[in-house]
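Lab notebook: predicted structure, single chain.

Context: the supervisor wants predicted structures on file for every construct in the current expression panel, including those that have not yet been purified. This is the next one on the list. No modifications to the sequence; it matches the entry in the shared construct table.
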Amino acid sequence: MNGPELATVMGHGKYRQVEVRRRVDATVEDVWEAITVADQVQQWWAPGQIDACEGGRVKLGDDGDACDGDGPVLDGKIKVFIPPHIFAFTWHDDYDDAGLVRFDLVQLADDVTQVTLVQNVPSKDAVPAAAGWHELLERLGQYLTSGESVSVPEDDSRFRALCATYEATIG
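Prediction complete. Output recorded below exactly as produced.
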C-alpha cells in the first residue's frame, strides 16, 4: 500500500463524508476476497460473518466483542454487491443510509488495485471515522502484502495519533 495519504472529509451540517483512498499491491480479485470473505476479513479487521450477496448480512465483532478494538459491532445489510468492484453495506440496521460503507475497487495494473472507501457519518464522528478507516485500510494493505494476519493493536496509540492529525486538519 503506498504512502500515508490522509482521508478526505467533506461537507458541513449534520453529516460529513469520509473518503479514504489507497493503492494496494494486489489484484482486484485478491482485494475483493479480503473484504468480502469472512475468513479473510478476520485476518485484518474482525471475526464475524458475511452473507456475500445483495441483501445479505454483514456482522463483524462476534459474541458481543467490539468489531475493531473497542469500536462498535457492525451488524448491517449488504446494499450493493458487484464482484469484484463494489461492496456497500449499512453499519447497523438502526442507522439510516448515512451509515452506508462503500468499498470501490479499481485495478490499476496487474498487481495494483485502488481501494476507495466512502462513509457518510454524523459531523461529530468525522474525526474518529477518518482515523479508524485510515488505520483499518493500513491493516488491509499489510495483510494483502504479507499474507499474514494483522491483529488489532493492543494499545490505541496509532488511532489516537491519527485522531490528533485529523483533528488538526479538519477540526
